[in-house]
Write a structure and sequence with these properties.
With about 200 residues, the protein is mainly α. About 80% of the residues lie in helices and about 0% in strands.
């Protein structure tokens, strides 16, 4: 289909990739908890934008560059790890009533989620290594093939993000009556971000 080796397997791989717990999912959940459905959807669009940048970077040959210069990948890996750990630290040390780490304005959620996606080595590895496996060299149609793949990824990410946002918003509404639960979840999210950062820093 449009030069994609196995479209069904490609869709399944994307869904699996989206469902794996990581910084992207945490960004969606945290953004929804802070900014409601608007914040969550803005974060979803940020994740989509980051994904598109990574995918088209792979198309442009960044994969070959990183393969030739492994230090470039490690630099991005460390940058992403430090960024996530910094966000986590800010969330853990935030005092009650302090300004949210993720600003409630949708444009900030978009930027935050986009940066987390761009600096997430899990996403980089997927688009730079795993994603090219689905391109059929014999039936490749150039930009049409990549365009269909990009549109599929964007559609699936939006659908997945919408489900996560709506579920998170529903649960958040029930917990607003008890601010302590919200603060505890923010601390937990911060610890998770620090954990992600440490894991990415020591990954090989």
């Amino acid at each position: 289909m449009f030069g994609i080796a196995d479209y069904g397997a490609f869709v399944a791989a994307i869904v699996l990739f989206l469902a794996i717990p990581g910084p992207g999912n945490l960004a969606l959940i945290t953004s929804t908890g802070k900014g409601g459905v608007r914040g969550g959807l803005a974060a979803t669009l940020g994740v989509i934008a980051g994904d598109q940048v990574l995918m088209w970077a792979a198309v442009a040959g960044v994969a070959a560059l990183l393969a030739t210069y492994p230090a470039a990948f490690h630099a991005v890996q460390w940058l992403g790890a430090l960024y996530l750990a910094w966000l986590g630290f800010k969330m853990v040390t935030a005092k009650p009533g302090a300004r949210p780490i993720l600003n409630i304005q949708p444009r900030h959620y978009f930027r935050q989620a986009g940066l987390i996606t761009l600096l997430n080595p899990k996403a980089i590895v997927f688009y730079m290594a795993f994603f090219p496996l689905f391109v059929d060299p014999a039936r490749h149609q150039g930009l049409i093939t990549f365009g269909v793949m990009a549109a599929t990824i964007a559609a699936l990410t939006f659908a997945y993000g919408l489900i996560v946002v709506l579920l998170t918003h529903h649960l958040a509404e029930r917990m607003r009556a008890n601010p302590r639960i919200g603060r505890a979840l923010e601390k937990l999210a911060g610890v998770c971000l620090i954990g992600f950062g440490v894991k990415l820093a020591i990954a090989r």
